[in-house]
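not sure who needs this but someone in the group chat was asking about Response regulator from Ideonella livida so here u go. i didnt clean anything up, its just raw.
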Amino acid sequence: LALAGCRGLDANALTRRQLLQAVQGLWLEGAAPPPAPVAAPPAQEAQEAEEAEEAAEAAEAATPAAPLAEGAVAPLAPPASRPRVLVAEDNEANQKVIRFQLGKLGYPAEVASDGEQALALWRQGGFDLLLTDLHMPRLDGYQLTAALRALPGGQDLPIIALTANALGGEAERCLAAGMSDYLSKPTRLPVLQAMLEKWLDAKASSPPAAPAPGQRDD
C-alpha cells in the first residue's frame, strides 16, 4: 500500500473506499490490471444453447394438451392428410384470391397459369380435385377437361369450373363438356367450402374404379 500513497497507515484502519482508491493507485503506477473475465468457448456456448433448447422441447412435449371447450372447433388436420387441390387460372389476382381461400379452408393447393401446365402437374399425381378457369392460353378449361377425362381414372375426377358468366349459358356448356360442377367468380368462401366438401366427400365414398381391360389383381 506504500505505492498507493498510503505510507504509514494501518491497513486494518483503512475504510473500504480508501482501500479501493489504494488499489486503483497501483493500476495507475503501472501495475497490471486485474484479468478480464474468461468467456466460455464457442463450442461450450453452442452445447449449452442446444441443451437448453432440448430441455424446452421436452417440457413442451410433456405438457398435456388442454381439452377442447364445449362447442369449440377442432384444429384442421395436418396438410399432409388433407385433400390437395389443383387450380388452373391465368389471372394473377384470381390466383391470389383462390389460393388464400383454399388456405383459409385448410386445403393444400398448387396453381397452374395455363391448361398445359395444369395437365403436366396433374400427371405427377397427388391431387384430389381440379378448379379450372375456362379461358386460358395453350389449353383452355374445356380442352383441359377433355384431356384429363381421357386419362386412366379420369372419369371419376372432380373438375369444378370457375366461370364469370354462369348466367350466360356457360354453366350448361361446362356440364356438357364433362365438368363435374361450376362456381361463379368471384368465389365466395362459404360457397367454395360447400362445393369442395360435396365433391371430395363423394369421391371418398365412391367405390374404387374397376381395373382397365387386361389388368388383374395378383
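also The chain has a mean pLDDT of 75. if thats useful
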